[in-house]
Amino acid sequence: MPHFLLALAFFCLSFNLYAEQFTSFSSAKKHLIKTLPNDAKSIYCGCDIKRQGKKLIPDPNACGYIPRNAVTRSGKPNARAVRIEWEHIVPAWEFGHQLQCWQNGGRKNCVKTSEQFRKMEADINNLAPAIGEINADRSNYRFGMITGDANQYGRCQVKVDFKQRLVEPPFHARKRIADAYFYMQKTYGLKISDKQQKLFTAWQNQALAAKGSNTVL
Question: Residue 153 in 3-state DSSP?
Answer without folding.
Answer: strand
